[in-house]
Specification:
Elements: H1 9-15, E1 24-32, E2 40-49, E3 54-60, E4 66-75, E5 78-84, E6 87-89, E7 94-97, E8 103-107, E9 116-123, E10 129-136
Parallel strand pairs: 1-10
Antiparallel strand pairs: 1-2, 2-7, 2-8, 3-6, 3-9, 4-5, 4-8, 9-10
Amino acid sequence: MKKFIILSAAILAACAGPVPEGGIEISNIRFDSPLPGQMTGVGFMSVENKGAADRLIAVSTPVSERVELHTHTEENGVMKMRRVDGIDLPAGETVEFKPGSYHIMIFGTEMAVGEETTVTLDFEKAEDVTLVAPILQRGAKPTMSDHSDHGSDTEY
C-alpha cells in the first residue's frame, strides 16, 4: 500500500529543504481556474527527479472526478492537445508542466481564484505525493505568498 504525504501550504514553507537521495521534488504546483462559463481547469508544476527513472501515471484532486495528463503535439503545422497515459521522469532531470507542453486537465470543476485544493500525484515507482495547490487566475504567475514555489519530497 502506498504511503500518502499530506502537506499544507504552511508546512510546505516550513519543510522545503534538501531532498533525500532518490527523491522527487515538486515545485510551483498550481491550478488555473476555468475560463468564465467553462468548467475545465489546468494545472502546472515542475517535477525534479533526483533518483532513478520513474513515471507519473495519474493525478487526482477532490475538485473533480476526472483529471487527465495531457501534452501538446504538432501535427501538420497544427498544435493539438492530447491525453497521455503517463509522463516519463528521467533520472536526474526536471520535467516542466507548462502551457504548450505537459499539463494537468481538470474537467467538471468550479475552482475559484484564491482557493486551494489538494492534488495527489501517483508515480509508477515512487510513493504517492499529496500537496496543496493554489487556484490562480488563468495566466497568472505564482508568487511567494502562494507557497507554490516550495518543494516537497517523497521517500522511497
